[in-house]
Specification:
Layout: E1 2-6, H1 15-26, E2 32-36, H2 39-52, H3 56-77, E3 82-84, E4 94-97, H4 117-127, E5 132-137, H5 146-151, H6 159-165, E6 170-174, H7 181-185
Parallel strand pairs: 1-2, 1-5, 2-4, 3-4, 5-6
Length: 197
């Protein structure tokens, strides 16, 4: 099984439908669980926190709901996907993770903007004992160093701590490189895997 985080930045791009089609095809050879980013829904949460001065716990809860909103959008585009919400193993080749409120009680996931869908994807990969985590992002990646990716704001601040506790094979794929999925997921390019520091 592989976990694939579909970044919310793909929300308004034609590449989004290409990725969903590619993942559906790929799932015939290896099970895929899609984790949605927050995209514009999470951006609204950030604005609401600034405007109304809401606390981090509330903003974190709202950001989890933002992921679920984007996930529901993806589900509408791929209605045959199975939905998983907690720690249950998927029984279908292609699933979408729609986080439920139980994730709020996970001690390893801080309730702040340091934990975004990147870290939640890593947490889920560990929870489900996935073989690999792939992060689809619009950013052009020049490094595989987690600390540098955090300093560049490519991945969230909480990623390094989670990774150090439970490393997983993690790779970042550019959002326009959907045709490279099989090569990247095959582990044939291990030099693309993220590492500490």
């Amino acid at each position: 099984m592989i976990i694939v985080k579909v970044g919310g930045s793909l929300y308004d791009t034609p590449e989004l439908s290409h990725w969903l089609s590619t993942l559906a095809t790929y799932s015939s050879q290896q099970a895929v669980v899609i984790v949605p980013g927050g995209g514009p829904f999470a951006d609204q949460v950030r604005q609401a926190q600034t405007l109304h001065q809401i606390d981090d716990d509330t903003a974190h809860h709202m950001a989890i709901i933002a992921m679920k909103q984007f996930g529901l959008l993806l589900l509408s585009m791929m209605p045959t996907c199975q939905i998983i919400s907690g720690k249950e193993l998927p029984s279908a080749p292609l699933s979408i993770y729609l986080p439920d409120d139980k994730i709020l009680s996970e001690q390893s996931l801080l309730k702040s903007w340091d934990i975004s869908s990147d870290s939640i994807s890593l947490w889920l990969a560990n929870t489900l004992h996935a073989d690999q985590l792939l992060l689809i992002k619009r950013a052009t990646i020049q490094t595989t160093s987690i600390s540098k990716l955090i300093s560049d704001a490519t991945i969230d601040n909480g990623f390094a701590d989670l990774f150090s506790q439970s490393p997983v094979d993690v790779k970042i794929i550019h959002y326009q490189a959907y045709s490279d999925l099989s090569d990247v997921a095959s582990n044939s390019n291990d030099n693309q895997s993220l590492h500490l520091p």
